[in-house]
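Pipeline run #58 for the internal structure catalog. This entry was flagged by the ingest filter as a single-chain record with no existing model, so it goes straight to prediction. Upstream metadata was stripped on purpose; only the residue string is passed forward. Reviewer on rotation: M.T. Logging verbosity set to normal.
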Amino acid sequence: MATFHHYGVPTTEKHENEIYLEEAKVHLTDSAAHPYGVEFLRFDADSPLPKEIQTQTHAGFMVDSVDEAIKGQKVILEPFNATDELRVAFIMDGGALIEVMETR
């Protein structure tokens, strides 16, 4: 079962309290601190993340298993450990970019 978690929006604007993920070279905001669950993502010019993630909005969902959620899907970014507690992957479903996340 997938549960909506956040709406991710790429931006070039700097936001207060950004978190920096060094491996992905992306600055992001905490969607839990936004009244509508928006996560803003600001990418370094040399970010290794796929262009789809850097240029398209996405919906983020909590799932029981990332591996199960990506089966049979067009995977844009293979599963990885975003934090010590969170494992994520990105898929494309039709024209929709979707992030699936599980707690570890």
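catalog note: The beta strands are 3-10, 19-21, 26-28, 38-43, 58-62, 74-81, 86-93, 96-103.
catalog note: Residues 51-55 form the longest helix (5 residues).
status: ready for reviewer M.T.
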